[in-house]
Amino acid sequence: MHLDLRDIIHTPGAHKEFGYVLDLSGVELFGEHPFNRPVNVSGAVRNMAGALELEGRAESVLDTRCDRCLKPLQVKLDVPVTTLLAESLANEEDRDSDEIVLLENGQADLDEIFSTACILSLDGKHLCSEDCKGLCPRCGRDLNEGPCGCKKELDPRFAALAKLLDTDPDGSEET
């Protein structure tokens, strides 16, 4: 969505509100499409003494999976966005700044601003609970439902030490 700001650019104290639904269903992250639901975007742009400031919020619910046990999981998304908007930059050094977004023909591309903010706000890891035990690496059983029958595997780095601790079935040490 392009928000036309030409009517408030040169009017200090003016503001313009916006609200719309952003569709991010085509975004794929790590082989999944977490944005299956619409993203509700709302906010306003204010002319504060000649500087345009955008304040807004993006809200939705993400459909993802627990990174340990792979159970389906829903995570609330609530992303506040605050940025400055400008028609041009006084210094070329400011061109790479993430804090200033350039207008194109007096319009702000809200889709770009809010989709970038939503994707960058995602956590790197989602868990169904802090104490999730995950899956057994051998049999794949969900360890949250109880222990599996797999024998605990010895770390190969400690194999020599384990031989020193081996004992005969009668209780005497092996030699």
The level of helicity is 10-25%
Q: Which word captures the global form?
A: elongated
Secondary-structure class: mainly beta
Order of helices and strands: EEEEEEEHH
How is this structure best described in words?
There is one protein chain. With 175 residues, this protein is mostly beta strands. It has helices at residues 110-121, 159-165; strands at 2-4, 15-22, 39-48, 51-65, 72-86, 100-102, 107-109. It is built from 2 helices and 7 strands; from the N terminus they run βββββββαα. A 5-stranded mixed β-sheet has the order 2-3-4-5-6, with helices on one face. It has a two-stranded antiparallel ribbon with strand order 1-7. A hairpin with a 2-residue loop joins strand 3 (39-48) and strand 4 (51-65). The protein is elongated. The model is unreliable at 168-175 (pLDDT under 50).
Short description:
The chain is mainly beta and 175 residues long. The protein has two helices and seven strands.
Overview features:
single chain, 175 residues, mainly beta, five-stranded mixed sheet, two-stranded antiparallel sheet, 2 helices, 33% strand, disordered C terminus
Break the fold down into its secondary structure elements and pairings.
Elements: E1 2-4, E2 15-22, E3 39-48, E4 51-65, E5 72-86, E6 100-102, E7 107-109, H1 110-121, H2 159-165
Parallel strand pairs: 5-6
Antiparallel strand pairs: 1-7, 2-3, 3-4, 4-5
